[in-house]
Each structure stands twice: as structure tokens, then as C-alpha cells.
Amino acid sequence: MFSHIKNLQFEAKPDGPDAAFARRLQEILGGKWGEMTVANQYLYQGWNCRLPGKYKDLLLDVGTEEMGHVEMIATMITRLLEHAPLSLAEAAEGNPMVGAIYGGSNPAHFIHGGGGAMPVDSVGMPWNGSYVTASGNLMADFQLNVTAEAQGRLQVSRLFNMTDDPGVKQMLRFLLARDTMHQNMWMAAIEQLKEDGLEAMPVPEAFPDSPDFTEEFSYTYLDFSPDGDAGQGRWASGPAPDGKGEFRYDHSPRAHAPEPVLPPGDPRLYGTDPGMVQGVMNKVKSKVT
User: The pTM is what?
Assistant: First the structure.
């Protein structure tokens, strides 16, 4: 059961209109790494969590907070669109800066949204549920959540440097602070899972009946760039983070299977017949010689 409180978690009020920046702000609302994504991601992870207690509560608490951030950003976008010129003539009446802002605005904000925010990104692509991952494995989900918060913090930071509006900057400061907390929180939750003995890795490094795979593949860095420097990294030698193996470095990885040769396909599919291709090549060779 959800309750809606009319007050915002933090003020979302610009000092003036800016339709062009409203368009940019759509990215952290309806983009792949926007608030609509993390809100739904955390809520679905929580609803799908089969482990009652602190982990389920954590997911649902943060998902609910993120839904409040959706409302904050939508409110800010709507306010940035207030008093924005609706035509080139209106824009031309003011100073050149107003005309530039008009040129950078998203017409869909006015045509589709009636002067309000929309569930789209900064180029108008609709938000969609494929952005959401809720796997049922807490370790896998929490690791992705760290990434989601890192990307969110990055985008908020970039937007902060794209506006001079003090009111907008204050809201972005708040969002950045909360994203910082959430990123650290998910990293702490990963450590908590390990301490509770629930999970060390999302899946075993190899199946118990395949020790040869573990020995040769689970901890070996394969260098496919002979002149590269990847072999100097932490991932090429020393103990692995899972504590179950030692990294090793293979500077000349070998193939483990021969070149695949596929049989002719079903003729009813009208694919290219390998036999015909070989015949054409033979004819070309005979002409050359």
C-alpha cells in the first residue's frame, strides 16, 4: 500500500523558465539511468525478493524514495516550462537568449505534454520497462544497483554544469547527495550479504563436476592485444576478490575448438548453399590461373 504526501522531499523550483534545460533534465527523469528506472528497478527487486526482512525493506524503502525523486524532477521540468515562448514570434520579442532557448526546447513538451514533463529521455525516446532488472538474485541485483547509481550521479553532475539557475542547482545538489548515499548503501549491502553468508557471487564460478574449467578459465586473464598493457593490472595476478582462486595471465590464448563448418541449410529456407559458393570460388580460381 502506498501513500502520497503532497510535500516534496526537497524543493524543486527554478529561479526562472528555461525550456531548453527542461529538455535536458528529461534524461534523469525518463532516460535509461533516470529516476523512473531506479524507482521501478528497486521496487520490482523488492516485490520479487523471497527473503523477508531487512533486504526486502531496503529495496522497497529506496524504491519509494526514488519515486519521490520522479515527482521532484517532473515538477521542476513543469516549472521550467512556465512562461516559455510558444512561437518564434514570441521568442523574437525578447532578447536573443530567449530565442536560443526557444530553439533548444522540445516541442513535444507543449504539444504532447501541455507544458509538462513526460516519461521520455532528453531526445524524446519513451521510457520503457526493459531498463529494469530484477533477477531474484540479490547479489546480482545489488551490483547492478551500484552501477545505476554511478551512472545517475554522473548524469546529474553533468547537468549541474549545464545550468546557471540557482534553484535548479540546489535540487541537483540534493539529488547528487542522495545518489552518493545510495551508491555507498548498495556497496554496503553487498558486504552485508557476504557477512550474512547468503551469497559471495551471483552464481558459482564453475559447476562442481568441472574442476578443469575452474583451473583453466575461471581465473585466467586472456590477453588478445599482444602490444597492450592489460597484463600489468590487478586482474592479471594475485588473489581473486572472491577468495577462491589466483589470477593468472595468458599472453597468448589458444583456440580450444577447430573452425566451425556448418552443413547446408534446409532448402526451403532459401539460404545460400555452401556447395554453390565453393563452386563459384573454384571457377574464379580457374580463370585467374
Answer: 0.84
